[in-house]
Design brief:
Chain lengths: 169, 347
């Protein structure tokens, strides 16, 4: 994966959202686009598809590429007011790792089953992989980060309806 | 969705059986979104799923208020949008490829496991004509599978050019069974492109070509059969469409799917050299080295003529004139979209 673009600094003043858009999206990937309009990942892409830090603000590989350390963005709130921490990312990772094939776009987005995440501080997370994983950051494009209420009270990627998180991330 | 799983290496292909959309999906702006330079600037987005694409486009180009944005506009409809007083056309490069999958299974009567034949077919096709006449200009030429704006595209890798003499020279090395027609399969959406490819091959290689256009109803069964990989298809070449979710690691999302050991579109035996290159890239954590290894995969795919590399279709979106919207190469996101003065929802 090539160099990741820093997110632009926030504007000084926040604009109040106004108006309504009526949209028709016949794409068979609409389910994925809805997800990307409503959830965030450590990495997103810009208009040209280039990687941009989103819930991550920095990263580094250590231990010969077997460990990926990610700095977690501060001052981010979920819609319910929960402040984002590395614990949310770990929980989302652990939930994702429960399933054999969570990602409809392909199992290349899977992290190896032996992978584990640890949280050394509220805004840092380390992923330990069995082998160096040069695709780990690219995989994080499909690694949706959720609030605790999403898992505890909400749909949890179809866990309640489907009884599974396979194919729903 | 249904899943087709393979055990070794573990891989799963998800296939959409049917869509069960609610009539509307409403997204409301998160007023505390951290990146307020990016957005959101619109208070509410309503996905109107009960409208057909054709009706939606008609609404969008013929008035204000019913539909503001329609994605996936066909090139055939582009001029209608450009002629509209109410909407305009947004065109963007998209990380999508239209590629011919070769049936490389050995011991068939047509030797597509022979690089000479795959090369001859690539040299027989006029991509510029396909883009100009088939895609009405709304596509980019590709040398292999990585679109030219993506990381890992080798700058010096030239697309196959239509060269009838070189095509015939490569074809002369091939044991083509006399009287056998090449069989091209595709879904209904690319029938016109398949017929253009067929015409070029007939003209430039002097062989018969049959085009088999699948019905939409059979598309799922065909996709399932392809992903399962148990049966040897009766077609020789399948025109197939695929996409990428970023511009950073095309071999993971695209090349692997067409040629990799766990690829859903690999039709034929494993490709050990491809797998070696892919494994080498997947374990590379240095960004510059990763890009070089991704380039090597794209170059290998072209040099081995592993697919019939055609084009990268652009994304076309109809947008109301009182809406500011810039498409994405990989997705459809509305965080930056704005309604402008005069928009129906502000009146």
């Amino acid at each position: 994966m090539s160099t990741i673009i820093e997110a632009a600094p926030a504007a000084e003043t926040r604009r109040t959202p106004v108006g309504t858009l009526r949209v028709v999206d016949p794409s068979p990937l609409n389910w994925l686009f809805i997800t990307w309009n409503t959830m965030e990942e450590p990495i997103r892409t810009d208009h040209d598809g280039r990687a941009v830090y989103s819930m991550a603000t920095g990263h580094r590989y250590t231990h010969g590429g077997k460990t990926l350390e990610i700095d977690v963005r501060k001052d981010v709130l979920f819609q319910n007011g929960e402040p984002l921490t590395a614990h949310h990312i770990k929980r989302s990772f652990d939930e994702m790792q429960r399933w054999e094939a969570p990602h409809p776009p392909g199992t290349w987005l899977n992290f190896p089953p032996e992978s584990v995440a640890e949280v050394p501080s509220d805004h840092q997370i380390r992923f330990h992989f069995p082998e160096p994983d040069g695709l780990a950051l690219a995989k994080m494009r499909g690694f949706h980060v959720s609030s605790n209420s999403f898992w505890d009270e909400g749909p949890g990627f179809g866990y309640k309806r489907e009884g599974s998180g396979n194919g729903n991330w | 969705m249904i899943a087709v799983q393979r055990a070794k290496p573990f891989a799963c292909t998800w296939l959409i059986e049917k869509e069960d959309r609610t009539p509307e999906v409403v997204l409301e702006a998160n007023p505390t979104y951290w990146d307020h330079k990016r957005g959101p600037f619109v208070q509410k987005v309503v996905f109107r799923n009960s409208l057909s694409p054709a009706d939606a486009l008609t609404h969008c180009i013929s008035g204000d208020g019913e539909v503001d944005i329609v994605t996936e506009v066909s090139p055939a409809d582009a001029q209608r949008v450009m002629d509209s007083k109410f909407a305009h056309l947004e065109v963007h490069d998209a990380n999508r490829v239209l590629v011919g999958v070769f049936n490389r299974h050995p011991n068939r009567d047509v030797p597509l496991d022979d690089k000479n034949l795959r090369t001859a077919l690539n040299l027989a096709v006029d991509r510029e004509k396909i883009i100009r006449d088939g895609m009405l200009g709304y596509a980019s030429i590709i040398a292999s599978l990585t679109p030219p704006w993506c990381a890992g595209h080798p700058k010096d890798l030239e697309p196959f050019t239509c060269d009838p003499a070189a095509a015939k020279a490569a074809f002369a090395h091939v044991k083509w069974p006399a009287g056998r027609a090449l069989r091209i399969a595709t879904g209904g959406g690319f029938a016109a492109i398949a017929n253009m490819v067929a015409a070029d091959i007939r003209t430039n290689l002097g062989i018969a070509v049959d085009v088999m256009v699948g019905e939409d109803a059979g598309a799922l069964a065909g996709a399932r059969s392809l992903a399962e990989g148990r049966l040897v298809p009766d077609w020789d070449l399948l025109l197939n469409f695929w996409f990428d979710i970023s511009s950073e690691a095309a071999p993971a999302m695209i090349h692997r799917e067409f040629f990799g050991s766990d690829g859903a579109f690999r039709v034929g035996p494993d490709l050990p050299e491809f797998n070696k290159l892919y494994t080498d890239m997947a374990g590379e954590t240095d960004p510059a080295k990763f890009v070089k290894k991704a380039e090597a995969i794209d170059r290998f795919s072209k040099e081995e003529a592993l697919g019939l590399f055609l084009c990268s279709p652009k994304t076309l979106t109809a947008v109301n004139n009182h809406v500011k919207f810039e498409p994405y190469a990989t997705t459809f996101e509305l965080a930056e979209a704005e309604v402008l003065d005069g928009h129906w929802s502000l009146k």
